[in-house]
Amino acid sequence: MRKAKLVEDYAKLLVDTVSPFAHTVSAATSGSQFLTKGADLAKPLTAALVPYDTDVNTVPNPTPAETAHRDQLRAAVTTELGRLAKRLNLDYPADEAALLSSGLTMVDQQASSTARAQSMGGEVMSFELLDGRTAGYLLLKLVRPTGTVQNLIRYATDERLPDEQWSVAVGGGREREIGPFASGTRVRVKVAALTGSTSEPVYSATVSRFVQ
C-alpha cells in the first residue's frame, strides 16, 4: 500500500488557481489540529501571497514588464507551497490525517484530478449575465455545484486578450456584480467552481453582454 505523501511541486498550477488554492492551504494549515504550530508553518506562504494578491488587484491590464514581475510573484507563492509540502512530508511521514489537514494535494489526488475535471459534465458552474443594479455594472447569477467553496470569475472587454490575461474576480455567494464599465462595452465572462482541492478549474462556456 502506498504511503500517504503530499505533492511537492506546484509550479504547474494554472494561473487562476494559485491564489485561491494557496489561501485555502494557508487557512487549513494555520487552523489544523493535527499539525504542531501550523500557523507558524504557514507564515512564509501567507507572506508570499500578500504582494501577489496586491499586484493582481491593482494592475488589471499589466504591460509585458508588469506581467514578468507578476510571474515572479506567482512563482514565489508556488515555491512556498512546495516548501511547505516538503516540510510536512518530512515532519509527518505517512501521517495521512496530518497531511490532509494542510489543504495541500496528496500524491494520489493529483493523479485523479485531471480525470475528475474531465468527468464533471453537469457539475460545471453555469450562470446568467444580466444588467447590474447600478449603471455600468453587470450582474452574475450563479448556479453553484455541490461542494463549491469559491467562485472563480474571468472577464474581459478586449477581444484581443488571451484567456490568461482576462481579469479575475473570486468570492462566494450566488450573485456577483462586476464593473464599472463604460456604457456600450461588450464584456465576456466565464466562471468556474473551486473546491478545497481544485487544481484545475473547469470553466463554463463564455457569455457576453453589452453594458447599458
| SS summary, helix count | 5
> Mean pLDDT across all residues, rounded?
85
What's the main sheet like? 4 strands, antiparallel
Could you give the order of the helices and strands? HHHHHEEEEEEE
In the residues, how many domains can be counted? Answer: 2
User: Biggest sheet: strands side by side, in what order?
Assistant: 4-3-6-7
Q: Indicate the proportion of strand residues.
A: 15-25%
Distance between the termini: 60 Å
Oligomer: single chain
Protein described:
The protein has 212 residues and is α+β, with helices and mostly antiparallel strands. It has two domains: 15-117, no CATH class; 120-210, Immunoglobulin-like (Sandwich), CATH 2.60.40.10. The protein has helices at 15-31, 38-58, 64-91, 96-101, 107-119, and strands at 126-131, 138-143, 150-156, 167-171, 175-178, 186-194, 207-210. It has a four-stranded antiparallel beta sheet with strand order 4-3-6-7, covered by helices on one side. It has a three-stranded antiparallel beta sheet with strand order 1-2-5, with no helix packed on it. It is elongated and about 55 Å long. Mean pLDDT is 85; it is low at 110-122.
Gist of the model:
By secondary structure, the chain is of the alpha+beta class. The protein has helices at residues 15-31, 38-58, 64-91, 96-101, 107-119, and strands at 126-131, 138-143, 150-156, 167-171, 175-178, 186-194, 207-210. The protein has two domains: 15-117, no CATH class; 120-210, Immunoglobulin-like (Sandwich).
